[in-house]
User: Which sequence fits this backbone?
């Protein structure tokens, strides 16, 4: 049985996408570098992400601000998790081979019995394996911690890029979260092109 961790980043911001990570860790992964991404410094998150990308099988899901406004942030978060799982699974056969793991020829048809996913929170995404949710899983299970790090670091990178396009909004600093400064800027000059218009300001 393979265990995949799922977590999202960016449910609370007023701008930008929501992202999700999905990670299966190898048995020899140095889990001591992991924690809930919110409890790690930026430097430690980025350092841990490099190790995750190098050693683990991982995927990223991204749902943009327009889709968030269309289907609401909860559904967008679950969709991001589904996309992250799909992205991870595309890489899984090659990763397994690289790590000396022999998969059955019907592995993808048997995902429900061969893969279990743990999603942080109290809702589960629609994915092809067995999946359960657990509140605060990102502080309990190393694979979910790793997923939270992937989601957080990659989303932060996107918001730093957005800051280059829309520097007046300060996205590199607050990453789109509803800080007092961010809300005041939006009220003064109007929403940016990546603003979530369904959110309250």
Assistant:
């Amino acid at each position: 049985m393979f265990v995949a961790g799922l977590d999202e980043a960016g449910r609370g911001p007023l701008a930008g996408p929501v992202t999700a990570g999905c990670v299966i860790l190898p048995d020899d992964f140095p889990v001591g570098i992991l924690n809930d991404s919110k409890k790690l410094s930026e430097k430690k998150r980025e350092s841990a992400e490099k190790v995750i990308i190098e050693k683990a099988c991982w995927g990223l899901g991204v749902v943009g601000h327009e889709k968030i406004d269309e289907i609401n942030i909860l559904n967008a978060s679950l969709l991001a998790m589904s996309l992250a799982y799909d992205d991870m699974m595309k890489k899984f056969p090659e990763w397994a081979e690289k790590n000396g793991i022999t998969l059955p020829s019907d592995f993808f048809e048997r995902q429900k019995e061969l893969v279990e996913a743990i999603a942080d929170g109290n809702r589960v995404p629609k994915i092809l394996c067995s999946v359960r949710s657990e509140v605060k899983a990102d502080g309990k299970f190393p694979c979910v911690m790793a997923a939270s790090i992937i989601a957080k670091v990659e989303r932060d990178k996107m918001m730093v890029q957005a800051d280059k396009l829309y520097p007046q909004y300060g996205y590199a600093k607050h990453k789109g979260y509803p800080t007092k400064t961010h809300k005041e800027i939006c009220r003064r000059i109007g929403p940016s092109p990546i603003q979530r218009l369904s959110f309250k300001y």
The two ends are 45 Å apart (CA to CA).
